Amino acid sequence: MRSQFQAQLTNLNSKLTKMGSMVQEVIEVSIQALEKQDLEAAKAVYKMDDKIDELELEIENECMMLLALQKPMARDLRVVGTIMKIITDLERMGDHAVNIAKVTLEIGNEPLIKPLIDIPKMTKLSENMVRKSLEAFMNSDIELAKEVAHDDEAVDNIYKDIYTELIDMMIENPEVVKQATNLLFIGRYLERIADHATNIGERIIYMVTGNRTEIN
Hints:
The protein is an all-alpha fold. It is built from six helices and no strands.
């Protein structure tokens, strides 16, 4: 029974890694679509997110079967519970990528009011946080999980800079209000993606230690 449980858990870990890679990709594609104003790429984000949703449901069902048939105890139970929490956060990250794509489609081919510098920086940091959080899960690495919170602070600081800059632009030139507001939404979506990665880090600490800790 133990070996069967471990085999099923290994399979779940593999699917979780795949889902994480898909989420990183959809985030990247959504921002690239914005940068290049590639409306077809923005539309493709919707289909990518559908696949993420399908994989989330598949992993969730397998977790439920594992809980029902294997009845894991203590640490094993926390591992399965953590997987179920992680896929929820990953799915929501995919939803935020869709939101970014929606904004890109709304902006369309309208000239951008400013060069996109900080938003791509936020994207790279957020993608890296997703990667780190999943690596921390696979290796039960508490210190790496804590690093994610440090990265979240950097994302928050960039968002504050974006917010200040765009608000100033709207005050100086009311004609840019609509697009500036849309860019603010994108910054907010990236900030929320980083928050979900931080949630994963906190779940990993609980999985390993059994203690609920808010990392900041």
